[in-house]
């Protein structure tokens, strides 16, 4: 099993969700996050004063999938979230050793 974490722009969330649903991916967790990478934030004007926004708001989508579904999941996120601009986000993939469905006690891929 794999855990995929995708950090994307807010306005791309619905596109990514629809793309994953079309691929047959069920279930995801979405969290609002803030951070910076190469963008290093930006400056804004508020009431005539310029100030720096160091942390850019993004959305983190977490999905757990089987090893066989990994490629189609990553491709779906890439296709839906990409704008071609700096700040499109990142995708992180990590191994997941165990999953357990609390309601039934099912383990492994059956718990997905």
Explain the overall architecture.
The protein is an alpha+beta fold. The protein has a single domain, classed as Alpha-Beta Plaits (2-Layer Sandwich). It has 2 helices and 6 strands. It has helices spanning 13-22, 70-81, and strands at residues 2-8, 29-35, 42-46, 49-53, 56-65, 89-95. The strands form 2 sheets. A 4-stranded antiparallel β-sheet has the order 2-5-1-6, covered by helices on one side. A two-stranded antiparallel ribbon has the order 3-4. A hairpin with a 2-residue loop joins strand 3 and strand 4. Helix 1 runs antiparallel to helix 2 (70-81). The radius of gyration is 17 Å and the shape is elongated. The protein starts with a strand and ends in a 17-residue tail after the last strand. The model has no long low-confidence stretch (mean pLDDT 90).
Notable characteristics:
alpha+beta; 20% helix; two-stranded antiparallel ribbon; Alpha-Beta Plaits
Strand content: 35-45%
Give me the side-by-side strand order of the main sheet: 2-5-1-6
What is the third-level CATH name, the topology?
Alpha-Beta Plaits
Structural class: alpha+beta
Task: Put the structure in a nutshell.
The protein is of the alpha+beta class. The chain has helices at 13-22, 70-81, and strands spanning 2-8, 29-35, 42-46, 49-53, 56-65, 89-95. A four-stranded antiparallel beta sheet has the order 2-5-1-6, with helices on one face. A two-stranded antiparallel sheet has the order 3-4.
């Amino acid at each position: 099993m794999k855990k995929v974490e995708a950090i994307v722009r807010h306005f791309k969330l619905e596109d990514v969700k629809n793309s994953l649903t079309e691929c047959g991916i069920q279930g995801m967790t979405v969290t609002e996050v803030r951070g910076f990478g190469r963008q290093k934030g930006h400056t804004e004007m508020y009431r005539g004063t310029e100030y720096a926004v160091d942390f850019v708001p993004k959305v983190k989508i977490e999905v757990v999938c089987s090893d066989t579904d990994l490629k189609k999941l990553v491709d779906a996120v890439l296709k839906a979230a990409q704008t071609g601009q700096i700040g499109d986000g990142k995708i992180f993939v990590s191994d997941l050793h165990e999953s357990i469905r609390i309601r039934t006690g099912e383990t492994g891929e059956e718990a997905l």
